[in-house]
Amino acid sequence: MTFEEFERRAGEMFDEIPAEMRHNVEYLVVAEEALPHPTIPDVYTLGECATGELDVGMDAPDSVRSGVHLYYGSFAKLAELDEEFDWEEELWETITHEIRHHRESTAGEDDLEDTDYAEDENFKRREGQPFDPLFYRVGEEVAEGAWEVDGDLFVECTMDAAEFARTDPISVMIGEEEVMVPRPAQQGDIHYVYLDGLHDEAGGDVTLVLIRRRGTWESLRSAFSRKETEFIESTVDYSDGSANPK
Known about the structure:
This protein has 6 helices and 12 strands. By secondary structure, the chain is an alpha/beta fold.
């Protein structure tokens, strides 16, 4: 899609949204440049919702004007990386996402900021970069102890050292299905067990997150020793219908 086509379709989509549904987002600006993520490679900002002053020094509500800013170059970069990139779908999703972001921000809600954070951390995880191991907790909670982030499912299981030692296999519910996961060789403080070949209803990856529960004395001892959290990752392969640790 050329820049001219992109700019025209963006304007048409923006105009399709009734003014009352835009929540005071009044204008749309399309820039030709790309806006790369400051720290994560191959990640680009597609759009932003900006609020600015119409008249400097005026405090009246009418003096504040909000608008969606789109970056054509970012869309083009992602299209180069993904041969199935859908320009129309991504354009519509970006415009509506930024309008919703503005609405939640002005209402004091943080849902979209949490979503953006979780998706950034999940991208780092997929790319083998350091990430916050509990990022998924700000994702969408789809069941008790289960969260979805960008199509991937994270199911949490908490047990102390004694429970871990006597539990093999570990039973975990994936939707309506009970899955038996062989106990890993090590517990750690937070242990990601990737269940390869096992997909949730949305078709994403499934990860069992084992959290070590500490007693009061053990927690105090760990705090005083300033011991770093022990984070472990392992994989169980379900692709052939059985559970094979890797």
